[in-house]
Amino acid sequence: MKGFLVFVIMFGVRMALEAQTSVNGIVRDSKGHPVPGASISLKNTYDGATSDSSGHFHFTTTEKGEQVLSVSCIGYNPYELKIVIELIARNLPIALHEQLSELKAVTISAGSFAAGDSKRGAILSSLDVATTAGSNADITAALKTLPGAQQVGEQEGLFVRGGAGYEAKQYIDGTLVNNPYYTSVPDIAQRGRFSPFLFKGTVFSTGGYSALYGQALSSVVLLESIDLPEKSEVDASISPLLVGLGTQQLSKDKDFSWGINYNYTNVALYFAAVKQVPDYFHMPQYHTADANFRIKTKNGGMLKYYTTFNHNVLGLRRQDVDSLYLNDAFALTNTNWYNNLSWRELLGNGWKMNLGVSYSTNRDSIMQQVQNAANQPEVFSDSAFWMVFKNFGLTSRQDLTQFKAVFDKKLGGISSFRFGGEYWYAYNRQPFQQNNLDTVFKFSNNFSSLFAETDIFITNDLAAKLGLRYEYSSVIARSDLAPRVSLAYKTGTDAQISVAYGIFYQLPENSQLFYTSNLEFTKATHYIINYQKMSKDRIFRVEAYYKQYQDLVKTVPINYFYSTYNNSGSGYADGLEFFWRDKKTFKNFDYWISYSYLDTKRNYLNYTEQLMPSYATHHTASIVVKRFFTDLKVGVNATYSFATGRPYYNFRLDSANQYYLADQGITKDYQSLNLSAEYVPSIGKKNARTFVVLFASMTNALGYNPVFGYNYTYSGDPDLKQPITLPARRFYFIGCFLSWGVDRSQDAINNNL
Amino acid sequence: MQMKSSIFSFLVAFTLLNGQNIFAQSDKYAEAMQKNIALLDSAKTTQDFQSVSNSFERIGDAEKTQWLPYYYAGLALTRAGWSDKNLDKDANSTRAQALCDKAETIEKNAEICSVRNMAATQQMLVDPQGRWMSFGQQASSYLQDGLKLDPNNPRLYYLQGMSIFGTPEAYGGGKKNAKPLFEKALALYKTFQVKPLYPNWGEKLSEDMLAQCQ
Q: Could you say which of A96, A123, A154 is where a domain stops?
């Protein structure tokens, strides 16, 4: 009986033990707003709940005593709380802290346009660069459709926010590219040397860029090369202008690849069909070969090597500005070899390393000669010294060796700290022959820099980037210290405001350093404010800036032939820019509009006072449209650019060898309509072994005759000035691009059918 | 004697109750899984899916050696991903992939690959033109991984069929190209051994899709 009683009591106790207790509470974030969808659980049990739309949760448990309540929710740091089921389990106040997340956090957008396929905040994709009408797969030409860049059509380079072309620099995988464009030809813009398809990401900074980079007063273009290719393939390109053949091989384990390409461009056929203003006595020909390998390291790092070799020749003749029967002949032979080795590695414990080595050598051989109607050289006496000046020959060699190391450490959350240094050795030599006199200009420069930068995320909505850069250049024996600061604040889901400030230094140009090393760094100070609203298919940006130029190089004339330089120049630029891109409003239709207002003046080189530089204009606008017709497999693209006229000047030397402004004016407005189309017949064909792209483009379709400026005669007579314009009104391109590759992604499925 | 008897009763009672408990432990797993699988099948709103996903994850965390709870937790999120147009697909899929990571620390199999495929596909669909090279390739490689682990898993063929069905005909997709995959999936469903608590979905869906392909 008693035994039975014990049994009953025991059972009762057991029942009591099994009794369910209620656990409830409310989940809030640090601002006190309820957090719905949080998962609440008693550790090591099945018991738990999910918070409702008001943050409340409730569940019952059979557990007893001390337990650990664990709370987790996407976007918040996990949270644990010790509770005692019988005592502390009701009306639990749970406070979650928002997780700092790269996906949600604000990005610093002041002054920079990111282009890339995976990059967040990207404005353009790599394909956009290639399919922007008028770019003809030239990166710089595509970037000119973005606000900040001027429509300068007679010389290469990016003229950004009142800055000259040489104030914008290009970096590949962290190291500077010494000669990013084909060697300049008077009054004819040259293309960039690098194809957009080499890169997975491009950042076009129109100011306020990171302390990791320097030596560019106005702008940097940061190019990030692709890692491993998607598949092995053989490529060929055929066009009346060029032929190319190449291959890219990817190892089976997808951890190693190599590639080799060769291109030959000869415009003889094209120039026979499309008349050019200059008379080409040597048809432009270009040989380009490149090779690469890429290795994925064990820890997920990447070792990449890329080399390209260019050799090109051209010779052209144009009427001499001072004479009706004489011509100026210009001949150029260029050889360029570029090498870039980069290694990025995860070192563990939040450390990352980026090492870069690059070597390039550029050799030019240039001859300029005044020729008579029989194409024979014309010799002048000293009484016509301005004509003597036009006969010269030069060979130039520019070598640059660079080492760069950057170490990056993740600090709790998504904040990070990075530091590093670089060392450049530049060797420049330029023997110059004129009037039977040989002069050898040369200098070498040891340049080093140290830099440190930190990204601090105070919350997901507020971030700061603080950087400092120290530079030393041996040729001028000067050092500088450049601080950079930017801040970004999120004002709404997709909207943010960023500001940036920075000081930027740049070494004077080689052509100036050949004459004197008694120079200082030129200097620019940037102030930028930017508002950006970016949703999936739409981007709106507005940016205002003020830029101050100090210590710009001024020409100090000694006589007609000879000048020296000092740093007494200065200037400023301010402006307002808009950008709007929309892929949503019209189906399958993508367009962007950019507008730049620029107000800039500078006194540099031979300018006599603060003047708007001849490459700048007040208003520049571009509209780019792209439409892909899926059924036809045809893409059609158009770009229309407009810019108001640019100032032009004629500075002349007076008898005291001082410059004076003899003539000036404003050119007519500039406009250009460019069209292109691509036909991709093999797109989406199952197991297509051959992938074909047919491409055609017409640049300046309206045949508008732009005037970029004027060349003056020695006499300076304004009526005799010659307009600088395009070598041909329109430029046409047709080409067929083929690739043979096996996409094995479907094989396993098909084998099992 | 009485004392003895009461001790005896005590021991009997204790053993009995504990014994009952031991059975209850494994039954509890099956019971909880069944209950939540039923909840998953009847879930409609994102909140339902997230809630049942959380429940599965709790079971997984408590059990430590079962991959199925994590699998279902991930599956529930991908269902939310299919049904809720306004859901943040990147966050949802990242979460689903994290659950698959947990499941794969216990066992690697084709079923988990199918959840991974759906998670990647949903991220691809956010911006098909911009993302097919990244998330599209990823989705495809999960199917490859799955087929290596189990070439006879019907769900993998159903998912491949869905991917082709959703691709425009001009790009190698369309009904005609998807049809053989749904047929293959249905043939495999006929012979597929269904184990209790194990995944058993897709047959009806494949039938419906095949009907749409006719």
A: A96
Residue A739, SS3 per DSSP: strand
Subunit contact A4:B10, Cβ cutoff 8 A: no
**Residue A13 forms part of a structural domain:** no
Per-residue model confidence as pLDDT tens digits over A306-335:
999 999 999 999 999 999 899 999 999 999
A636 inside domain: yes
Average pLDDT over residues A618-627: 95
> Comparing C-alpha atoms, which of A195, A163, A191, A197 is closest to residue A179?
A191
| Tokens coding A159 | 């003229």
Structure ipTM over 0.90, yes or no: no
What DSSP character marks residue A165?
A: G
Q: Which residue of B has its CA nearest to A583?
A: B127
The pLDDT tens digits of the residues spanning A697-715 come to 999 999 999 999 999 999 9
The whole-model pTM stands at 0.81
If asked whether residues A90 and A119 sit together in one domain, one would say no
Task: Residue A75: give the domain boundaries.
Answer: 19-96
- A746 touches B139 (CB < 8 A): no
Confidence band, pLDDT 50/70/90 cuts, at residue A4: low
Of A39, A41, A748, the CB nearest to B147: A748
- Residues 6+ away with beta carbon under 8 Å from A232: A247, A248, A249, A250, A257, A741, A742
Residues in B touching A80 (Cβ below 8 Å): none
Does residue B22 surpass a pLDDT of 60? Answer: no
Distance from CA of A271 to the nearest CA of B (A): 38
Question: In sequence order, what are the residues at sequence separation of 6 or more whose Cβ sits closer than 8 angstroms to the Cβ of residue A162?
Answer: A218, A547, A549, A571, A572, A573, A575, A598, A600, A602, A613, A616
Contact status of A633 with chain B (Cβ, < 8 Å): yes
What CA–CA distance (Å, rounded) separates A148 from A204?
10
**Are residue A192 and residue A62 in the same domain, yes or no?**
no
Question: Would the CB atoms of B170 and A686 count as touching at under 8 Å?
Answer: no
A279 and A317 share a domain?
yes
Domains: count for chain A: 2
Selected residues 116-155 of chain B with any CB under 8 Å from a CB in chain A = 126-127, 130, 133-134, 137, 140-141, 143-144, 147-148, 151
- Is A46 in contact with B177 (Cβ distance < 8 A)? no
For the ranges A312-321, A693-702, A726-735, B124-133, the lowest mean pLDDT is seen at: B124-133
